[in-house]
UniProtKB/TrEMBL annotation:
Gene Ontology CC entries for this record: cytosol
PROSITE patterns: HTH_CROC1
Source organism: Corynebacterium sanguinis
Domain HTH cro/C1-type: 14-68, 78-132
Transmembrane segments: none
GO molecular function, one term: DNA binding
UniProt key word DNA-binding: yes
Record's protein name: XRE family transcriptional regulator
Keywords: DNA-binding
InterPro entries named in the record: Cro/C1-type_HTH (IPR001387), Lambda_DNA-bd_dom_sf (IPR010982), TransReg_Diox_bact_type (IPR050807)
Family annotation (SUPFAM superfamilies): lambda repressor-like DNA-binding domains
Amino acid sequence: MGKTSVENFDAGKFRQIREAAGLSVTDLAKQSGISRGAISQWENGISTPSVARLTAVLAVLDSHASEVLDVVPTDFDLRTLRILSGLTRSDVATFLKLSESGWGDIERGTTPLSVARIEPLSKLLGTDQTTIVRAAQRTIDNNR
């Protein structure tokens, strides 16, 4: 899986949401601008989408990433929170005025999240500051 691919993607849930929306793979591809082949590979578990591509198709399906990711809220780390928000690593880095590699170090747990960045990150990700602090700690713990 590539660095930008979404982890814990549930292909079955994704297919159910597409079918419930009454769209064929071809229809979804046309409306989202994502290739039919890519969507088919996601649904068949051959590959997983990037955050940007997943966000594009979920917008067409009027759905949210949390509906197609198999994650438990207590397992959230910074990367998972970012993905659930439909943001790329670059989006977060730009918002926080960091280099992409600087945010990458924080997201991997090799550099701690500074206190000054907790509030803006919570606003960007649409969650409370306590969740950000816990996710940041979980990120560091997962790196050990």
